[in-house]
Write a structure and sequence with these properties.
The chain is mostly helical and about 240 residues long. The protein folds into two domains: about 90 residues, Arc Repressor Mutant, subunit A (Orthogonal Bundle), CATH 1.10.10; about 130 residues, GntR ligand-binding domain-like (Four Helix Bundle (Hemerythrin (Met), subunit A), Up-down Bundle). The chain is about 65% helix and about 5% strand. It has a three-stranded antiparallel beta sheet. Strand 2 and strand 3 form a beta hairpin. Helix 6 packs antiparallel against helix 11. It holds the Pfam family GntR.
């Protein structure tokens, strides 16, 4: 058994015993992208990542393929994979797609959301608030992304939830590339207000607030910045590889 399978994070345990090595590797990379620990353009060496996670290159390759389908990783023939780096034009298209998706999602969420789902999202907002207070920018960004993914779950529409996951992670790449301020997270006050509208079943208010929320995110983008590149070993330093 590899070190990766021995190590279980809190998230891994929540996913249950059916989680595979592919799922774990995918989850770590997805979170690193969402937290902006893996900036756009970072080369994803299969050999290095195999050593980091203690798994075969085949497993790394499958995880990267899954991420490429979600368009957050670019796989180049004979050149390996890199974290996607959206152009200005691509960023504008992604943001427009995100707007269309979010408005549909929030309207459906106001109809279908359960008390349990709303409570889960409020807990995410609380964690996001805590991360912001602690100055943990990466964690606050990830929690903000998870909040928006959970809104899609509330909508009770599986295709929307799947598309939303991809768009949220792509948005994180855009923010990493083009954010003009240091505060990359969404406002937790806005998240709370969105939940209040959903809980009240007020579709009109929820849609209006989401439009304002997305405009707030977009207003912080400056579409002319370059992105840094991080070292893979440093990014995944929290993943401990233990030999059997």
């Amino acid at each position: 058994m590899t070190g990766l399978m021995k190590k279980n994070t809190k998230k891994d345990k929540m996913l249950g015993p059916k989680q595979t090595q592919d799922d774990i590797v995918y989850g770590h990379i997805f979170d690193a992208i969402l937290e902006q620990r893996l900036p756009p353009g970072t080369k994803l060496s299969e050999e290095a990542m195999g050593e980091i996670f203690g798994v075969s290159r085949t497993i790394i390759r499958r995880a990267l393929l899954r991420l490429s389908v979600e368009q957050v990783v670019s796989t180049r023939p004979n050149r390996g994979s890199i974290v996607a780096s959206p152009t200005v034009q691509e960023a504008l298209q992604i943001l427009k797609a995100r707007e269309v998706m979010e408005l549909a999602i929030i309207e459906l969420a106001a109809v279908h959301a359960t008390k349990e789902q709303i409570a889960k999202c409020r807990a995410l907002v609380s964690e996001e608030h805590e991360a912001i207070a602690q100055g943990d920018t990466g964690r606050s960004i990830r929690l903000s992304g998870e909040f928006h993914i959970e809104l899609a779950v509330m909508a009770n529409n599986i295709p929307l939830a799947s598309f939303q996951r991809s768009l949220v992670s792509q948005s994180s790449l855009i923010i990493a590339l083009y954010e003009s301020s240091k505060h990359t997270n969404c406002s937790f006050d806005e998240h709370t207000q969105l939940l209040d509208a959903i809980e009240a079943g007020d579709k009109v208010r929820a849609v209006a607030m989401m439009k304002s929320h997305l405009e707030h995110i977009k207003s912080k983008l400056k579409l002319d910045d370059d992105n840094p590149v991080n070292d893979l070993h440093a990014v995944f330093s929290n993943v401990v590889k233990k030999k059997a």
